[in-house]
Design a protein that fits this description.
Arc Repressor Mutant, subunit A; 2 domains; five-stranded mixed sheet; disordered N terminus
Length: 363
Amino acid sequence: MSQPLHLEPIPFITLPNWVKAAAQCGFNIEPVFREVGIEMDLIHLESATVSAPLLQKVMEACVERTRESPQHFPFVLGETFAFDYLPDIDTFLATSPTLRDGLQVFDWVRELINPLIQVRLAEVGDEAHLVLALAPAGDAAPYPYFSETTFASIVKFGRRLLGSTVPFHRLCFCHPSPAHVAAYEAYFRAPVLFDQPQQLLAFDRALLDQPLDGAFLALHRQARYRVEQRLAQLPLRSGSASGSTSGNAGESLPASSLVLAIEQAFAAQPELLGQGIERMATVLGLHPRTMQRRLQDEDQRYAELQDRARFKLAARWLEDGRQDIETISERLGFSDRRSFTRAFTRWSGTSPSAFRGKERADS
């Protein structure tokens, strides 16, 4: 039996950000951890985890310590958030050619940092919306402080990429207007609405494809490849599939684990890339319509997951150098080498042969 998503351990490699935010707000966070019963193995911080309910208790305690302060802890935590412990993600973001391309980071945040956070892009008329969904940390709805922290980080990185004067149209939260409402517009410098049906940041859609000053495609592709390598090494989380054909096991997959299950099935059985969605559904023990519905609920497309897996495997096999390009093309389910070359060039900005040549030169 898979356990509910909110009971899954959350990676806590963000601990240094919490320490910095607490210090900036004028208190030491170590006693807070002791009070709520969190013990950190700082020698192996990269593998440290914490439960969602405990993390919520830490957040509440930190907010309480700054209640009389002019600084609101969730905003400070969002502002101090950085990818110091995942420098390849920071490099990928900083060298993105466009904001649209950089939004790939949100998928990696969910997989490497916090599986309870999901940010998706919606394009509505002339506006782009970054829509935030937070899984509950137990039986209750997610506490608004984590929404504040997440949007503080999004706004920080958005202004870093687009410029400090970028005009955001509005920021929407699902929770009621809080007592500290005056801090919102002062911090975000944008209209803030509460009691909204969705949590989102709205801005000009044209900004998605505006060329960014930091674009550096060679570094960008290398950073993507390194992150994909890290993802390929992740252990299978409980609740995701491992090739079982049992219907009961498949039907117990939480919707939020489905994408991870598909990605790991592709990694374990590359032949699935050329066998269609029906075969993947069988491997995961799902009816194809059930799988399609769950993907739609998560605003995911099977073809995009398939492309991402193909690119990850193609880059790995090209770097390895033991298979020729025709063999790689066939193993990835392409009809011929030309189709593979077109697809790989679209994903990476360079041809498979050029990519292989560069990797050999770099080594």
